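SAMPLE LOG
Freezer: B-3
Tube label: C17
Construct: single chain, 136 aa
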Amino acid sequence: MKEKEGQGLYPVGLPDRYKVMEIDKSMGGYMTSLWFEGDSEEDFIWYDYKFDEQVRFNTDTEHTKLSEILINGNDAVMMTSKGGYYITWVEDGTARNLNISNAVLNEEEAVNIAESLEWVDESSIEASESESQLAA
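STRUCTURE (predicted):
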């Protein structure tokens, strides 16, 4: 499965202070990454999704609390550390990873961001200061 032409998965429930800094499509359109910054460089959210049936995850879980949760009815794993949250799950044929860098947001807000992903027209997503890399 490959991404829909001209569309991308976007967290519509993202708090207003976060701005898109970079959009990167790679692996021939099979992987997309989005980078958002908040009020400082340390306040960021990184999100990626992949269209691949054989995706493997390798995540450092040292000094983290692991929780099994549901995202839109799909099994997910949330890793919580003093540095933030990392949520990974599979939904609609895409493997999804959400990394929230700081603990300013609480667990409920992190889950709400993950659950708010919707297909939107790429023309409505603009990278702020850095140029988007939309070559598929």
